[in-house]
Specification:
Elements lengths: L5 H13 L2 H8 L3 H15 L4 E4 L2 E4 L1 H29 L3 E7 L3 H16 L3 E7 L2 H9 L5 E5 L11 E15 L20 E4 L4 H12 L5 E5 L3 H9 L5 E4 H4 L6 E3 L7 E9 L6 H18 L2
Parallel strand pairs: 3-4, 3-5, 7-8
Antiparallel strand pairs: 1-2, 5-11, 6-9, 6-10, 6-11
Helix pairs in contact: 1-2, 1-3, 1-4, 2-3, 5-10
Length: about 300
């Protein structure tokens, strides 16, 4: 029977994720020579060629991709085994490390953590505010147990490393300066603002979300200002410098601007929770997921 070495398979999977031996070594706190040696040994054990030269870099062979497909299933099963063992040894007790984007922390994570203090005080939640791309790197590396992100930021559902679940659909409202001519318009449409200056991110998924929503309404928004933080965006809207699409998770807490629901256009973004595949069955993680679902359902209900 072929000998499968879990440690070496993890190195191979990290190389597939990071792209270079150097980046793999940094992620795993190893030296590049140690990474290369471990992968050479794995290739010898499996009896196949795993890497081939590609300029100054290396590229995974078809055999390596085949090995990784099976490795993902192995890692998922090990996560489930760890979860069952943790449940056996500690009952419902445990620590759950959450990586979440900024607006999800006060709206979803904090209420869930407060609820867990009452229902499952033996579950300890540790929160780390992260950028979306970083949260999946941390999740894959085992540095967080649960990642909250937007669907636009998340790996595809076909990524075998993760289990994903939609927590909620977060509608997008439009924020207007308080003295805007349409600030009191009850049936506002995005197309009504096609001639206004717009404020949204300079790059990345949020720019795509804002532009796509406007394009679906029949126009390309004129970007007057670029900002990534909601405090900055809302401050510019309040000052009359433009209008902006704002997720309900933010607009429900906004002040100093006129917020209008776009009932006809109904643009939304989806908030995703993800774990390493198999880890969602760990008792402590399952309790945190259930708490997050209840908080999300309470937000959707009204």
């Amino acid at each position: 029977m072929t000998e499968w070495d879990i440690k070496k398979l993890r190195i191979l999977r990290t190389l597939a994720e990071r792209g270079t031996v150097t980046a793999t070594a940094e992620a795993l706190h190893m030296t590049p020579s140690a990474v290369s040696q471990q992968l050479t040994n794995l290739a010898r054990q499996l009896g196949v060629v795993l890497l081939e030269a590609h300029g100054r870099r290396v590229r995974l062979t078809d055999a390596a991709h085949l090995v990784l497909r099976h490795a993902d299933a192995v890692f998922a099963q090990l996560e489930r085994a760890d979860a069952e063992l943790a449940g056996y040894l500690a009952g419902d007790a445990g620590e759950v490390r959450i990586g979440a984007f900024s607006t999800a922390v006060p709206v979803l994570v904090v209420p869930a953590a407060l609820a867990l203090r009452r229902t499952h005080p033996q579950v300890e939640v540790r929160v780390r505010e992260t950028e979306a791309a970083e949260s999946y790197e941390l999740l894959s590396a085992g540095m967080v147990d649960l990642a909250l992100s937007l669907a636009a930021h998340a790996p595809t559902a076909r990524d075998a490393r993760f289990s994903r679940m939609v927590l909620l659909e977060d509608p997008l409202d439009v924020a207007l300066p308080p003295d805007h001519p349409l600030a009191g318009e009850p049936e506002l449409r995005l197309a009504d603002l096609s001639g206004d200056p717009w404020i949204y991110g300079g790059s990345g998924p949020w720019q795509e979300i804002a532009r796509s929503a406007c394009e679906a309404a029949g126009f390309v928004p004129e970007q007057a200002h670029a900002a990534a933080g909601w405090t900055a965006i809302l401050a510019m809207v309040e000052a009359g410098m433009g209008v902006a699409l704002v997720p309900r998770m933010v607009s429900s807490r906004a002040s100093g601007v006129a917020v209008r629901v776009l009932a006809h256009d109904r643009p939304t973004r989806h908030v995703i929770a993800a774990t390493r595949r198999g880890a969602e069955s760990a008792p402590a993680v399952a309790h945190v997921l259930a708490a997050l679902r209840r908080v999300a359902a309470d937000r959707v209900g009204p």
